[in-house]
Each structure stands twice: as structure tokens, then as C-alpha cells.
Amino acid sequence: MKKISKIIIGTHNQGKFREISYLLPKNIVKISPKKLNLPSPKETGKNFRDNSKIKAKYFSKKTNLICIADDSGFLVRALNEKPGIFSSRWAGKNSDFNLAIGKIYRKLKKKRKKKFFFAKFICCLTLYWPNGKFVQTTGLVRGKISKQKKGKNGFGYDPIFVPNGYKKTFGEMQPNFKMKIDHRFKAFSKIKKFF
Predict the structure, then answer these.
(1) CATH code at 177?
(2) Could you tell me if residue 174 is inside a domain?
(3) Helix/strand/coil (H, E, C) string of 43-80?
(4) Whole-structure pTM over 0.85, yes or no?
């Protein structure tokens, strides 16, 4: 099968664009929907796989290019796995994740006092070809919520998530290190043979 040399990364989120670009081989031409003034499709799926495919198919059909798109989210066990597929929506129209993080801490305060709260990050990646062929993979990282927000690196919920086996939040880790252990890396490692 012909190796991919040019790809559109189906996201308007700069943090995601940066992380997916980092995972892809350096010699691949990476295109952003922003550069092409392409809006994002409505995410009407019932789960991460659905939404990831909706984005990948949409950007692939619009550009006639192979697309890689991710749908990922933060799931807190004590909050019945919320925010889940609504992870970015909890940040509001301006994608202010301080709002979303504040909401999580407020909701957890109402719960029984526990030593720590379990959480996980999930990423579903879809690689979509203009001819309709596609592959999907999922990556998962389990951990817990830190007592307070820590670290300036990463994006989204990274400053409050401590992965199992580590003492630091994703927000405190060096980006290059974090990107070798996170959910996006785990999902990508299952499709990297196409590159």
C-alpha cells in the first residue's frame, strides 16, 4: 500500500493539531482546516468513534485528501464518566478550560470525601481515505485527578490529570515526554503502519 505523503488533520484545536503533527512522520505535508477556511462539522455522534469518523469523513470529502481526525475526552468515574464526549463543550464557546476544570472540582466537592478520584483520557483516531476506506483505533490512559491544577504545559484537562505510575500531571510533564505516554500516542501507535 502506498505510504501517505500528505494529510489533513481534522481539527481546529491548536493543541490537538500540534500533538497529532508531532506523532506523524516529519516528511508528511500536514494541512490544517483553518488554512483552508473549512469549518468543523457538527459532532452528532453518540460516542468518540462516531464523532471521530464524522470529522475525518467530512474533511476528507471536502478536500479529497486523506484525513486523520481524533475525538477524545476526559472521563471522571465519580461523575458517571462525564464530561466524556462533551469534554470540549464543558469549556464553553471560547474553549476556556479553566471553566471546565472549575466545573469538575465543584461537582467533585459535592461527592463524598475520597482520597482521590479516578479518571481516564480516551482518544479515538480515524484515518479516512477519499474513496471511503477508513480505519479506527482507540487509546486509553487511566489515572486520577490532582488535588489542584498544576502545570502550564499541554491543553484541556492536562493540568488536573495524573496518569497511573506518575507523580506529575500531564500539564507538568515535558510535552515530548507526555506525548509518548498519552492516549493519543496509544491510539496512533496502532495505525502508524500506514505512514
Answers:
(1) 3.90.950.10
(2) yes
(3) CCCCCHHHHHHHHHHHHHHHHCCCEEEEEEEEEEHHHC
(4) yes
